[in-house]
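Hi Prof. W.,

I finally got the HTH luxR-type domain-containing protein prediction working! I wasn't sure whether to trim anything, so I left the full sequence exactly as given:
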Amino acid sequence: MDAAARVVVLRAEGGAGKTVLAAHWARETDDFEVVWVGVDEGTREPRSFWLRTFSAVGAVLGGRHQDLAAEYLSGLIPTDEAPALLASVLIRDPRPIALVFDDLHLASEETQDRLVSLVGRVPELRVVVTTRQRTGFETPTARTALDVEVIGSRELAFTAAELAGLAQRLPYRLAPSELSLLRRATRGHPLATQLALSVVRTLSRNGSRRPGREEIARGVEAAVTDFLPAFDAAAEEQLATAVALCPEVDEPLAAALGGERAWTAIASMEERGLGRFAARAGRQVFLMHTLVASALRHRAAQTLGPDELTRVRRIAYEHLRELADPIDLLVLLVEGGLDTMVFPHFIRHFSELSLHRTHDLIALLGPLPPARLEREGTLPIVLATALSEHSVVPAPRAKKLVRTGLAALPERAVGESPLDDAYLLLARLAALRVLRRYDAAADVGERLLERLETLDASGVGGGWFPAKVQIAFTHLLALRTDRVRELGAALDEDPHPTRPLHFRSLLAFADAFAGDLPAAERSLTFVEDGMPATWPDSHYATGWRLASALRAAADGGFDDALALLEPLESRLAVLDLWPAVLWTRGAVRFAQGALARGLRELEAGLAETRTYPIGRGWSEQLHALLAEYAMASGDLARATSVLQASGADPAVQLSRARLALRFSRPQEALAVLNGTASADYLPAQEAQRALLRAVAQDRLGNSELASARADEGCYALGKLQNPLPLAFLPAQALDDLRRLTSRALWREPAGPPVAHDGPMLEPLTAREQLVLRALEEGRPLAAIAAELHVSLNTIKSQTRSIYRKLHVSGRREAVTKAAQLDLL
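And this is what came out:
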C-alpha cells in the first residue's frame, strides 16, 4: 500500500479483507493525515455523500474544513459545487492528505464521477477506495490520468504460509494435506478461511477429537451457504452454478456452458459483485468470488443434477486443460468422477504435480474410498507416486496403493487402443518406480517407447515428452547409460521452457559417467546457458552437479568438484540418484589421491543408505569402487572378498583384472578382460580395458602387442579428453604404460598417482604419527628427539619404522604418501 499508485482501489467480494487492509494502512501510515469516509445506503444520494465527506474531513483536519461542513449542512453550498470547493480547500492545505472511501460501490455513478474529477484537481491527494463492484476510478481514462492501481481478491487472499500460521491457533496441528484441503476450499479468502478454521475448531470440540477431511469439507460448505445470492430466473442461477464449478471462465467456455448470450450474463454478474474479470494467459476470464462459488457449489447437486454436473466439468476441463492451474483442473476431474482422465492429466503436468504440488495432490486423492481406487487402477498409482516422491524409501501406504493399482490394471484390456495401451504401460512404469524396481521399470519403459513410436507414426503421439524424460531417468536409475544417451535426439524437440534443462542435466551425467567429456560438455553448456538463477539448487540440477564435478576433477579441480557435490550429500534420503552421488564423490576422492578419507566417506555413505533400494547396476558400481579402495590401500583380502560377492558388470571385471595383476597373474587378468564383449563397456571402461591388457601383455613379455594396446587406450582417453581412468591404475602400471606409449599420445593423470602396488599397510603408532608430523614440518631429527625427550637413536628407529610401513625410502616420499592416505 505504501508503494502503490496515487489511487488504490481494493475491489473484491465481501469478507475479502478490503476494509481490514485499508484500516491497517490508515492506522500505520505516518506519511498522511488520513480521512476515513464510510459509504452506506444512506449516502447513495449525492447530497448525503458530500455531507458525510465534509463532516469526516472537518473532524480530522479542523479549521476551514469544519466551516465547510457547517456551510454545506446549512444549504449555503449547493451540491453541484461541493466537489470543486472541497478541492480548492484541500489544495491550499499544506499537509499531505489521504481520503479513504469504504464501500464506494454504494455511491451513485454521478457521485463517483464527481469524485474522480475532484482527485484530478488535487495532484498531491492520496485516495484509497474499497468496493465490491467496478467504480468510476477504473475507466481507462481515469486509470491513465490519475495513476490508479486495482488490488483484487487474488492479491488479498491468504497465502499458503499465512494459512499455516493462522492454523497454528487450532487445538491440534494440521497435516500438510489438511492445510491443502482448507486452502482449496477457501482459496485463501480471508472470511472463508476464518469460517473454515472456526468449523475445524468446533468439530474438534476444542481438541478432544480430530475430524476427518470429508467432515471438514462438508462443514466449510455448510458455513458459506448464507452467502448464496438471489437470482431472478432459474436459467440465470443454472449458469451461475455452472460458472461456480469452473476455476475460471473465458468467453468460449461461457458459450459452451450457456449459449451465445452467456458472456453477457456473466458481465452482469461482475456488475453485481459476484466476481471479477482478470487477465489470464493472454485472455480475459471471469473469476467468481470464493464465498459465492462455495455457496453455489453446495447447492449444485440440486440445481443441475449428477449427469449435468459431470457434463459441465468435462466441458470445463476440455476448454481449460492447457490454460488453468493443474490442481484446479484435477479438482474438476475428481469431483466429476472422470477418473480415467486423471492419470493422463497427471502425466501432462508431472513435474509440477509430483514435485511441487504433492500436498495438494494427496489432499485431493487421499480421501477417495477404496472401492473407487480399486475400480480405476491408475488413481492409486498417482496417489502412491505423490506419497513417495520426496523419499527414497517408499512408505508402506504407497506400496499398498501400488499393489491395488497393479491388481486393477489388467482388467482394462491392453490393446483397447494404442493410446490407452501407452497410458497403461506408463502407469505400470510409474508403479514400478514407486516400488524402486528400476530394472523392471526400465524394461517397461522400452515397451512404452515402442508404443510411442507407433503413436508418433500415426500422428496422435503428441510428443509425450514428460514420459520420455521419465523413461530416460529410469534408465539412468537402472544404470543403462547407453540408452539415456541414445534418447537424446528424441527429446531435443521438447517445447517446454525448462524440462529440456532437466533432461540435458541427466544426459550430461550419463555422458560424463561413460567418460565422454566432450559430449557431457555440450549438454552442460546447454544447461548453463539456459538455467534460471535458482535452478542449480533444485532437484532437477542433480545430474548437472554430478557431471560438472567429474568435469572439474578431470581438469584437476578437485576442491571445485567436491564443492559441487556438497549440497547433494545431505539430501541422499530424497534423491533417487543417491548411488550416483556416492560413486561420483568416491571417484573424485580416488583421483585426488585422498584414499583414507575417500574410503571413510564411501563406507559411511554405504552404511547410511544400507536400507535404501538400489538397482543392480549401481550396486555393482559401488562394490567395484569399494574394491578399488581396498586394493589401493593394500587390503587385498578385502578386495578379493568384495569382488567374489559381485556380478559380472564391466566395472567389476576391470577391478578383477587389476586385482589379478596385483597378484602377478597377467594371464588371469587377460582372461577376465577378454571374457566380456567390447560392446558391453562404456567408452572410458573400454580405454581402461585396453590399458590393462597392455600391462598384462607387457608382463607376459609381449612388448610389441603391449605397446599397441597402450597406444589404443591412450588414444581413446585423448578423444574422451578424460584422464580420470588413469587414477585407477597402480603407480608401477602407470610407469610401464608411460614407457610403452608414444609420447604424443600419453596423458598424465589428473591427480598424483597412488603407489598401491605393495602389501597391506601397517597402522602407525601414536608416537610414529607425532614423528611423521614433525618430518612434514621439515625439522631435523635431533630437534625432534629433543622435543619428544628421547634419544636420537630412538627417533632414527621410529623414522625407519615409518618408512617401512609406508613402503617408501625417504622423508619426502613419506610425507607425500601420508598425505595421499590422509594421515597428516
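The first helix runs from residue 18 to 28. Does that look reasonable to you?

Thanks,
D.
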